[in-house]
Predict the structure.
Amino acid sequence: MRVDIISIFPEYFTPLEVSLIGKARSRGILDIRLHQLRDWTHDVHRTVDDTPYGGGPGMVMKPEPWAEAIDAVIASAETEGALPRLVVPTPSGRPFTQKVALEYAREPWLLFAPARYEGIDARVVEEYRERLRVDEVSIGDYVLAGGEAAVLVIVEAVARLLPGVLGNVCSVADDSFAPGAMENLLEGPVYTKPPVWRGHEVPPILLSGHHAAIARWRRDQALRRTVERRPDLAARLDPATLDRRDREV
Ligand SMILES: Nc1cc(-c2ccc3ccn(Cc4ccc(CN5CCCCC5)cc4)c3c2)n[nH]1
């Protein structure tokens, strides 16, 4: 997968050089390219923002530098044999969920446009919707200072789904929110050695070796946690699943 990121803070993406993603890049699974938006300005101050039409707080990012930067990146579409999916983080976007992460993990090329200030002139998205699949996505109902942190979140959530990135593939299938058995269920508690730590014992079932009973216990813990912490997800569960939890107490 090729990933291009255009930003006025390319140094924000240094974390993508370490750990799982760093390894995936060195193994050629991920090809991440960073671009400084200001390289597509033509004034001495390398200006990327201006005052908002209609008034209001803050500044808005000018359309010209973004369009020149995006055009430069997609110019290599010939060699890529396809155009990228343009992902624009914004508080007003569609929710970025595990389902969207799985969608993105199937894409050969993602182009991220993390903005700053109050966002990008809306005509940029308007312009590229004619040529690219454009997604305006939100990573949560809170307001960041810019889109860079959202890109780090999205790239990490997507990269771990790529074959060969995580050592143990089945752990992806057991993720919270992963389609199938765990969909709409939170992770339960996890434990490792020592068996007793500061007087806290590991639940004996986990040391029993009874794998079917352990699987049932884990699912019950996940159900309990989901009902307690995420009633919105619990509401989507099959009533039979919820009912089973009570019976197995
Ligand atoms: N999930 C999530 C993604 C983001 C995100 C993503 C990208 C950018 C780029 C800039 N910001 C900061 C920002 C954005 C919007 C406002 C609201 N403002 C009201 C007046 C009219 C204009 C808009 C304020 C500041 C960003 C924030 N935050 N949270």
